[in-house]
Design a protein that fits this description.
This protein is mainly alpha-helical and 236 residues long. The protein is 72% helix and 3% strand. A hairpin with a 3-residue loop joins strand 1 and strand 2.
Length: 236
């Protein structure tokens, strides 16, 4: 196995332990030599993995103490790996609730901007993505991606590069969250209730295309608050 793959695997293993709380803030990691022996890999592999952890601010290196796990508030949360590890952790419910709180802060503003800034081409793309979403309503595998692309088309139409860049970092966990939401929602409610969610998407699309930012914002917020109730039903 290539050096990169070995160091990447070690990075993943230790990163997940930190995010999961198995290695708590303040914990001093074993020395490079010890990790090398315990994991059956070279010291170079260990050093590369530790560099990855340092880059994500999960650990800090001290010449006197060694490699120390940092406080959660210091982690580089917007790193795609950190986000993905958090989405698979024991605190999955808390993570997805915080993700929804972030969406509530961003997406209502995003749809309002889209209603103001969308070109005719943007509107065509939003309609196209909504039609794809509607077509995937009964397809558990296709829905998460179709839903993400619909919301992404709206953010593209907002023409705010900073907002778009932030959400792109969240892509994998947003799709994964939609998969979980779909499964939980299906177990809690009938198709009529799920169809209400689809209609809210349609209402957002129509409001944006009509240039009604206030209505688009209201409907998006209503949809996200509906998802909050679904996340509350996640197993603890």
């Amino acid at each position: 196995m290539a050096l990169y793959n070995l160091s990447e695997q070690l990075l993943q293993d230790i990163g997940k332990q930190i995010i999961n709380g198995d290695l708590k803030p303040g914990t001093v990691l074993p020395k490079v030599e010890t990790l090398s022996k315990n994991r059956g890999v070279s010291r170079t592999v260990v050093r590369e993995a530790l560099k990855g952890l340092v880059a994500r601010r999960l650990v800090m290196s001290s010449t006197k103490v060694g490699t120390i796990v940092r406080e959660r508030s210091e982690w580089l949360w917007m790193d795609p790996n950190v986000l993905l590890w958090a989405s698979e952790s024991n605190n999955q419910k808390l993570f997805y609730m915080q993700l929804l709180e972030l969406r509530l802060a961003i997406e209502p503003a995003g749809v309002h901007l889209a209603a103001q800034n969308a070109t005719e081409k943007d509107k065509e793309e939003i309609r196209f993505r909504y039609n794809q979403l509607e077509s995937s309503f009964d397809n558990v595998l296709e829905w998460p991606n179709a839903d993400y692309e619909f919301h992404n088309s709206i953010l593209l139409a907002a023409h705010n590069e900073l907002m778009l860049s932030l959400v792109k970092n969240l892509r994998e966990v947003l799709i994964k969250g939609r998969q979980i939401n779909r499964n939980v929602n299906k177990s809690l409610s009938d198709d009529e209730e799920r169809y209400k969610g689809l209609l809210l998407h349609k209402a957002v699309m129509e409001a944006i295309c009509a240039g009604d930012g206030q209505l688009a914002q209201e409907k998006m917020r209503e949809q996200l608050l509906r998802l909050v109730e679904i996340v509350k039903a996640y197993p603890s």
